[in-house]
Amino acid sequence: MLGIVDRIEDGKIAVIRIRGGGELVIPVANLPLEIYEGACIDIVMSLDKKVEKLQKKKIKNLQAELLKKNAQKK
Question: Is the pTM of the predicted complex or chain greater than 0.85?
Answer without folding.
Answer: no
